């Protein structure tokens, strides 16, 4: 039997939640005319978290892995939005690099998770 809400135990889930909170705090300071970037990055960073959670309840590792892939896509989307924010002088280089490093770590964790699902060797 699967543990209820097993996603809460995953380090990548915890890291993604922290990152989302940091992003929300940062983008809420953007000028109002960038509302479209604010909204999109909040949704893309939230999508990382939600796909991990939703995928964890799937019956097969193959289905779970599909959600991990979607989560990885949201990581890339979040990096792209941050790059646009940096190019628009909404965040500085230090902020951009910090977020990029955190997203790279999450991406690496998701990649390893995906590989372990394919090999059926993940730890709960």
Overview of the molecule:
- It is a single chain.
- Helices cover 74% and strands 0% of the residues.
- It contains 4 helices and no strands.
- It has helices at 11-27, 35-56, 61-87, 93-118.
- Helix 1 (11-27) runs antiparallel to helix 2.
- The radius of gyration is 15 Å and the shape is elongated.
- The model has no long low-confidence stretch (mean pLDDT 94).
Brief account:
With 124 residues, the protein is mainly alpha-helical.
Set down the secondary structure blueprint.
Blueprint: H1 11-27, H2 35-56, H3 61-87, H4 93-118
Give keywords.
124 residues; mainly alpha
Instruction: Point out poorly predicted stretches.
Output: none
Pattern of helices and strands: HHHH
Biggest beta sheet attributes: none
Radius of gyration: 15 Å
What structural class do helix, strand and pairing data support? mainly alpha
| Number of contiguous helices | 4
Percentage of residues in DSSP E strands: under 5%
The average pLDDT value, as a whole number, equals: 94
Helix content: over 70%
The end-to-end distance, rounded to whole angstroms, is 12 Å
Total number of beta strands:
0
> Given the C-alpha coordinates, what overall shape results?
elongated
